[in-house]
Amino acid sequence: MSKILEILKEVKESGIKNIYKKNIENVLGALTKTTDFWKMIDYSNIPVPYAAKIIEILKNKGIVEIKNDEIILTPLGLEIIKEEGVSAIKKELRCEACQGRTIPFYKDIELYRTFVELQKDRPKAIQDFDQGSVTPETTIARVLFIDSKGDLEGKNIIVMGAEDDLTGLAIALTRKFKKLLIIDIDERLIEFDNKIIKELGIENVEAKVWDLRNPYPEDMLGQFDVFITDPPETFIAFKAFIERGIATIKDEGGSGYFGLTLRDSSIFRWKKFQKELLDIGCVITDIIQDFNDYMNWDYHEETKAQKVAPVNKKPQDIWYRSAWYRIEVLPGFKRVNEQIPQEIFDKLYLDEEGSTT
Amino acid sequence: MSKILEILKEVKESGIKNIYKKNIENVLGALTKTTDFWKMIDYSNIPVPYAAKIIEILKNKGIVEIKNDEIILTPLGLEIIKEEGVSAIKKELRCEACQGRTIPFYKDIELYRTFVELQKDRPKAIQDFDQGSVTPETTIARVLFIDSKGDLEGKNIIVMGAEDDLTGLAIALTRKFKKLLIIDIDERLIEFDNKIIKELGIENVEAKVWDLRNPYPEDMLGQFDVFITDPPETFIAFKAFIERGIATIKDEGGSGYFGLTLRDSSIFRWKKFQKELLDIGCVITDIIQDFNDYMNWDYHEETKAQKVAPVNKKPQDIWYRSAWYRIEVLPGFKRVNEQIPQEIFDKLYLDEEGSTT
User: Fold this and answer.
1) CB B281 within 8 A of CB B246
2) pLDDT at A295
3) Plot region of A284 (φ>0 → left; ψ -120 to 50 → alpha; else → beta)
4) Which residues of B touch A98 (CB under 8 A)?
5) Which chain B residues are closer than 8 Å to A284 by Cβ?
6) Nearest CA of chain A to the CA of B118: how many Å?
7) What is the spatial distance between Cα A257 and Cα A242, in angstroms, rounded to a whole number?
8) Do the interacting molecules here have an ipTM over 0.90?
9) Could you tell me which residues come within 8 angstroms of residue B296 by beta carbon, excluding any fewer than 6 positions away?
10) How far apart are CA A168 and CA B49, in angstroms?
């Protein structure tokens, strides 16, 4: 049996089910690029608790050693990498101009500058609501990506939660939509948005506090062309968020945008997500990996991620990214709009694969 | 009923089933950007025969007129666009550096230059084999994309057909793989590759003529880490090509790369493709729209596309593009390796949605 498959077997025996050969290869490959645990996560696209377990096993097998909080491949590790043809993911090949997003944020430099200026006093990300904001470049690239698909000008748009990224505010600043509704559970964000919208006199925007557990009122159903959200990554929560989004869509061909990561979900769960999207009447039109760059959040030390990490060193740079999905809603889609039970919501933000909340 | 839905109804009544509201909007949106039929296809992501039918109906309704082979929106057309909030797809927002591919071809400028020089005498695309080559920038960006995912260095790679794009040759030039097998039905291409491989003394590459209808010999099954192909876009052919690719994969986590277009397939067929990929044990990790740019082919005038077009004007520029898919093969996948019946193969290259072959 190959050394990689041996390691895989041991990781599985330790109780991790949703793991496959590629995960082991990606971790080993990443360690040829960096000795930093958090950068290794960035390079290997794997849930943090799984990465921590793999490192533990690699250490026990003498494949890596940990010195001064750095993870270093031993001569044995380097030999395995060579023998088994392990290759690292090469982020250095990403386009510098658009940072691998296909659309560069600077295509509307005025919008970017205005946004950067306005967001300076944004409310801080808090752990209560699973917050962690993307960079301003990410937010603006999202807006331009949506515009590039013909999903902004003249459209009715709803931004459902995750307004800690201020995507709703950035869309508001374009003034290109027909109608814009921003909802979030965090009243600090809604107040922040409303203050700016009022000061700038932007019309046809509403920002309101809303708890996504509650069904939408009749006047929000079937009203929108586009929904944008950032679902928590447990299956049940994902399904609930996306179904709520689809319930707001007016016609076939309406579209949805959201982020999904491989750092709080395994590839196995991605497959379940994708199957669910098709089952509820959607088609996937775009998946851009590493589109969403997350700034480090103040509560990092309190997260499961830091607790399970094999090092005490905190992230020095951006390490958490997610892919950007675009879906379209096809004819025959259904609008599901039921109460999401509290007990499901309690488990929304954390499970075996998730660790950053 | 909205004007767009009225047009949609009429298009459906003319016998086109796989069409939805977004198609009509995209065609109208595209006409705000261009009066050229082929550029309009590029901007609207729609099968050519469907676009031709929509234009015919728009003309009958006085929404467009055709003058000197240009398609022009009438005042009525402009009014509908404004009233219904129709927005164009905005290709001008694409990154100029990587041309929207996330990885720019110039990240390995030596490889690009060598390839451009070597491919000058490439065999011409011929209609017999549904050929039409991508630009050299596309080919090199594919190779770098594959490398960026950790799927090149030290890997066993098979390029299955579509060597008119010379993707196999470009991979050979990197000398980074462990083993490379290039197969194609067109012996001109295989001879072309073999000549260069021999002259440059590149090792561990084999290029051989192979008819994909035939099952693979035992020594090709379960041997590879990565497969690359360009399946014809009928459902039955797509399934056969992808299954053949998966049959070559050694282990879970192996990956596949291929192009899919919305210019020879409807979004409805994409949904079937995506469902099939999940059903046969894969997960989709990347979908980059407009990654593959196709050069115009000499036999364009002989294609159904030109015959159904409402104008005589030929394409002036690149108009045919496809999305680039990456999939991963998950644990439990099956190797299917049966003869593909001739009668299925006869229908491979043309159906109601396809038109460019």
Assistant:
1) yes
2) 86
3) beta
4) 95, 97-98, 100, 102
5) 274, 284, 287
6) 24
7) 10
8) yes
9) B314, B315, B318, B319, B320
10) 38
User: Smallest Cα–Cα separation from B292: which of B143, B77, B126, B122?
Assistant: B143
DSSP per residue over A98-126, as a string? TTTSSS-GGGGHHHHHHHHHHGGGPPPP-
Question: Given this model, what pLDDT does residue B208 score?
Answer: 96
Residue of A nearest to B154 (CA): A85
* Chain B closest-CA separation from residue A190 CA (Å): 27
Nearest-CA distance B159 → chain A (Å): 19
Q: Which residues pair with A329 in a beta bridge?
A: A282
Chain A residues near residue B251 by CB distance under 8 angstroms: 5, 21
A267–B101: do the CB atoms touch at under 8 Å? no
Question: Which of A95, A151, A253 lies closest to B95 in CB terms?
Answer: A95
Cα–Cα distance measured from residue B177 to residue B109, given in angstroms and rounded to the nearest whole number: 19
Whole-angstrom Cα distance, residue A48 to residue B181? 36
State the count of interchain CB pairs (< 8 A) between A and B: 182
**Contact between B289 and A287 using a beta-carbon 8 Å cutoff:** no
A155 CB within 8 Å of a chain B CB: yes
pTM (2 d.p.) = 0.95
Nearest CA-CA distance, residue A107 and chain B, Å? 6
Positions in chain B whose pLDDT score sits under 50: none
Token pair belonging to B73: 């929106």
How far apart, in whole angstroms, are the C-alpha atoms of residue B140 and residue B14? Answer: 42
- Tokens 């050519």 correspond to B48
B19-39: b (≥16 Cβ within 10 Å) or e: bbbbbbbbbbbbbebbbbbbb
DSSP A272-292: HHHHHHHHTTEEEEEEEEEEE
Q: Closest Cα partner for A126 from A350, A357, A306, A307? A: A357
Residue A157 is which amino acid?
I
A274/chain B closest Cα distance in angstroms: 8
Please choose, from the candidates B165, B195, B167, the residue with its C-alpha nearest in 3D space to the C-alpha of residue B297: B165
The Cα A333–Cα A227 span in angstroms is 15
Report which DSSP code applies to B125: P
Q: What is the DSSP string of B277-295?
A: HHHTTEEEEEEEEEEEEBP
Q: Confirm or reject contact between B244 and chain A (CB < 8 A).
A: no
In tens, the pLDDT along A88-121 reads 999 999 999 999 999 999 999 999 999 999 999 8
Q: Which of residues 126-145 of A touch B (CB under 8 A)?
A: 144-145
Residues of chain A predicted below pLDDT 50 = none
| Separation between Cα atoms, residue B183 and residue B334, nearest integer Å | 22
Q: What domains appear along chain A, each with residue ranges and CATH number?
A: 3-88 (1.10.10.10), 105-345 (3.40.50.150)
Q: Is B321 within 8 Å of B294 (Cβ atoms)?
A: yes
pLDDT at B357: 61
